[in-house]
Design a protein that fits this description.
This protein is α+β, with helices and mostly antiparallel strands. The protein is built from five helices and 16 strands. It is elongated and about 65 Å long. The two termini are 37 Å apart. The structure holds NADP nicotinamide-adenine-dinucleotide phosphate (NAP). Residues 48-50, 53, 73-76, 123-124, 160-161, 163-165, 168, 224-225 line the site of NADP nicotinamide-adenine-dinucleotide phosphate.
Amino acid sequence: MKNVFIYSNNDANSLKAKNELKALLEKENITVKDDFSSDIELVIAIGGDGTFLRAIKASDYSDVLILGINTGHLGFFADYSPNQLDEVVKVCTSDNYLIQSYKTIKTEVETKDSKIILDPAINDIYVKHGLSSIIHLDLSIGDSFIESMAGDGLLISSSAGSTAYNYSLGSSIVDPRLDLLQIKPVAPSNNAVYRSITSSLLVPGNENIVIEPKDVNDTVIVVDGNENKIEDVKKIIITLQDRVIKIIRKPDYKFWNKVRTKFI
Ligand code: NAP
């Protein structure tokens, strides 16, 4: 590789790792850049999973390779640690690495007078009220109407995001080899007036999940933690798309080993 973009959070440990790695890569005649450009062959994210997601956004969601160095966070996406910088240099100087591809989530929003495509999501889309109020949402899968739900909102997660907010809500961890979307009602109201499914629903990734907000001016659609407040939303259509992110994994990477070491 000739051009590498290093994206780091501002923790002292991350900045130290960034400086050390930059020096090691430059010794190998690799140019290290602080911003993304079209000639970048590898993005290196130093921090936690949040930093990893922000590095992908800073790289315009291009399908460039991305490698994570974890500096003391949960680090589900990152396989390397700051004391393995030599291994990271080896990745950059050889073609010998394992690539894990994840499809991203596409979100199309129809408002009273426009259609908007939001940024691709790696983890999840959360649809909620613009104020801290209960939201009423009609949910359909394809052209099958499922329910009118009332509650905090609906979380739609990819397999990659199944270990994030989805897991905190008690929903299933999904093997990333499965291309599916998981719909989880968040704090649904269940009483004599409202009825909602409380478990999560698993749907094939190529299916359209259609959400129609009712009686709400401002809907907030959270894409991997980034809020989009949109007025007069009529319909939100969510599906998995072929636009992928490509993560460099260690040769011995096994998803279920990672689950055990991070959660048990
Ligand atoms: P944040 O609210 O600052 O931190 C969210 C936490 O989720 C961090 O500990 C992060 O790990 C972890 N995380 C992110 N992606 C993950 C993944 N795929 N698997 C396992 N853990 C993951 O927000 P952020 O750092 O910008 O990340 C955005 C994500 O936060 C959203 O996509 C959403 O899933 C998640 N979130 C979770 C909750 C919750 O669990 N109650 C609430 C809101 C949002 P690191 O410590 O390694 O950064």
